[in-house]
Amino acid sequence: MKFSIYLLLAMACAACSTQKAEIKTPSFDEQITRKPADYSNGSIWQASSRSMTEDFKAYQRGDIITIVISETASASKQASTNTERSSSVTAGIPNLLGLEKFGLIKNNMDLANLINASGDSKFAGTGSTSRQDNLTATISAKVLAVLANGNLQIEGRRNVKVNNEDQEIVLTGTVRPVDISPNNTINSIFVADAKISYTGRGVITDRQSPGWLMNILDKVWPF
After folding, report:
1. Which of 46, 52, 74, 92 is the most exposed place for a label (fewest CB within 10 A)?
2. Are residues 189 and 117 in the same domain?
3. Over the stretch 121-144, which tens digit does the pLDDT of each residue have?
């Protein structure tokens, strides 16, 4: 009996002393496995080396490409409406089976002017809207994958922190190798399915937004 109790206590202590191993997810660069260069044969040329006539543009997974973001968008719309309508109705029955000469009808009704109505309505409306956006930046992106047709899927992130204010730029999309310039740069207008996000987090951004109570009132206020 004592031996069983001691055995249970030992197992409990062993369980308490067990520590969970920290699992670290490898980064994008660590996931890329490439065979290291082998210069043991005395040659500086390797199987993975590029041709001497090729440039150094991004072409495979893990390569870095520079994106020149130059986005300018403007739109305007103007509409004007003007309508007018006027109508009038006049009706009378001078003769009503001869009854107009007798009794109540003769003394109290003017059959020649039974109905006389008119209506007039006008509507005029005008509206206009305009918007202009500009974003200029330069960001480096990584090639996430090479598609079957040779196009490159890219993603770039840049975070700048000044006085506890974070400014983050995120760009994703697909580019064609032929659009990449010899100095390994490409304009954002050549990025297909481009998603460009420029956001901020911090005290300044918080002060530019209304409080939570004001947001609730704006949603429920009926007027």
Report:
1. 52
2. no
3. 888 888 888 888 888 889 999 999
